[in-house]
Write a structure and sequence with these properties.
Oligomer: single chain
Strand order of the largest sheet: 2-4-1-3
Number of strands: 4
Radius of gyration: 19 Å
Strand content: 5-15%
Distance between the termini: 66 Å
Helix content: 40-55%
Number of helices: 7
CATH class of the largest domain: Alpha Beta
Order of helices and strands: HHEEEHEHHHH
Shape: globular
């Protein structure tokens, strides 16, 4: 009744049991957060909204992930996404309600990147979540085998995920990186 001209959008909406399931066929996912980590919080290392790249020029689908009205996204939910972004606001009132956060984000992206012409087709296919998970797994093994303090290991793993999340890599690039990281793992294990 209140959707005006968005009935088709509402009727085609899908409901998922988990955030992880909803992101399974996305090529990139960006999490909105008002709680930005300082230098020590790699999970909440956020890109300011105006610095987000053009989602229309990225190959594949980009998911924008917003949290609950009352408490936003958890660290675990943010870690499922490729990057976190934040909307610059007043320090006195750093959080927006959900509808406003979505409206501001969509306005910023449309205003900055509104599609004037369709993007040029590309032969390059974006890396899938599964392809990225493979390279993450090998990197995690490297980190586990390194002489690092136990509390630093999850931080190193998250930083690697943050970097790849902001890189928007193709499947071929991730495949090449996977081969290199696998060889690094083998070298580290051989030295041990």
């Amino acid at each position: 009744m209140f959707s005006v001209r968005a009935v088709d959008i509402l009727e085609s909406a899908e409901i998922f049991d988990s955030l992880e399931e909803s992101l399974s066929d996305m090529h990139a996912s960006w999490a909105a957060t008002a709680r930005v980590g300082r230098n020590h919080s790699v999970t909440r290392a956020a890109v300011p909204l105006p610095d987000l790249p053009d989602p229309f020029r990225l190959p594949g689908q980009v998911a924008l992930v917003f949290g609950r009205e009352d408490k936003g996204l958890t660290n675990e939910e943010i870690s499922l996404c490729d990057l976190a972004f934040t909307i610059p606001t007043s320090k006195d009132y750093p959080s927006l309600n959900l509808s406003h956060a979505i409206a501001v984000t969509l306005y910023e992206l449309f205003n900055k990147y509104g599609v004037v012409e369709p993007p040029e087709p590309t032969e390059a296919k974006p890396a899938t979540r599964e392809e990225r998970e493979i390279v993450y797994g090998f990197f995690d093994e490297v980190v586990e085998d390194l002489d690092l303090k136990d509390y630093r290991k999850p931080i190193a793993k998250q930083v690697f995920r943050n970097l790849l999340g902001r890189a928007y890599m193709t499947g071929r690039e991730v495949s090449t990186l996977t081969g290199v990281v696998r060889k690094l793992r083998d070298l580290v294990r051989k030295r041990k």
